[in-house]
Amino acid sequence: MKRTYENALKLLQTRRRTARPKGAAAPPPRDAASTPATNTLKGVPSLVGMKEWLQTLGHSDRDINRLNIVHIAGTKGKGSTCAFTRSFLHAHSRRTGFPSRIGLYTSPDLRCIRERIQIDNQPIPEELFTQYFFEVWERLQPPDGASQPRQPRYLQFLALLAFHTFIRENVEAAIFETHHGGEFDATNVISRPVVTAITSLGMDHLDQLGPTVQDIAWHKSGIFKPGALALSVPQEAGLVEVMDKRAEEKGTKLRIVPPNGSLPKNNRVLSIPVQRLNCLLALEIGRGFLQQIAPGHEITAEDIAHGVDNFSWAGRFEVLVDGDSQWFLDGAHNTLSLEQVAEWYAKNVTAQRCRVLIFSHFNEDRDGVALVKNIAQALTKHNARPEYVIFTTYDEREDGSTRIDKNLKEPETPFPDYRTIYSSLWNEIDPQAAVSSESTIEGAIKAALEIGHRNGGMQVLVTGSLHLVGGALNILRP
Predict the structure, then answer these.
(1) pTM, to two decimals
(2) Where is ATP bound in this sequence (predicted)?
């Protein structure tokens, strides 16, 4: 096969599972004192095979450890914490020269697969992605005539590609976000991270990590390693007990980062408590990283100010300004996140401009009606009730075209069209709002632009789904 970017994307798609495993496989080994022993893993743990595949690629534990890795797990705020950590280290690098190159591995992507593997604040170029993709792909193929060994699945392959890329590109610091869990996550092949950190924990991915939040805490804390700094934001008391026990088992000691640290004033970035919490955690990660890797180096007040001012994380608390129109984008898709988004939006809008909500959410595992009620109540509570509400789908373009590297996972079965249900519900909640629906994201954006044209500008909140926000970004900022 010809080594092209398009062919790399096609091959990568072949590694997707058709569906998540439904039946239980084996219970995770655990101490009954740590957490209830009711949880069972479904399918083969993602960590299985990672060490052997890295060795096949020619990478030893020592090669991985030389990347100077920060490993971050949690339920909410992982991506933002990773981005804040990168921003602080980048600010320090601009002033001192260290670390000279910073790698970042996160998921999911919104606009293109290369967003998941970044170096120095930029997704790796198509040429580099293609080159390293085929190096990994071809080295993992069996020799002619040999039996076919088990091959990495989609997320495993991407993690392997990130390790391979960062090693080949000689990064001096690498920030890795876990996929879903921790203990059995593919990224947990990292044996000697410099710093590990846990963001806010909550009830998500219950089929794989639940059924209780204590089970989730047990899984997430699996990234702790002997001698590595272990940090966490404040958690519920019962969860801290689980995490403390896990830290002891792993040969380290957990430290809770207090929520009242000093940060610069920045309403765009730090207007809601959850982002301040993520920022404070990232600041302690950066400080701990430098203490371990570059004694004598410190993150200064200047570094902190630059880090906050230059923070960006696509589709998470993101603001785009176009003349008299402002677009507030966040891929929130559960009740906790939507509450935070409503608060953030309310703190950044003005009463003089008309407010528009574009919303879309279709998911087999979440109650979309409950989410619509939640965002409506939250916006009203924070005095940011939208005058116009537009419900749409996940279809991006009116002409039906799809970008070649759109990579958010498509549903296993087509979603029902809930736009009529959501519209009727919103009319009941707020009869004064002008409610409409559009068949595509592009159509919803055009409708919002027309509203803004009639009203001399507008403030649009786009939320409810990563699919929606990714599509909106692709249209608003090609």
Answers:
(1) 0.88
(2) 316, 330
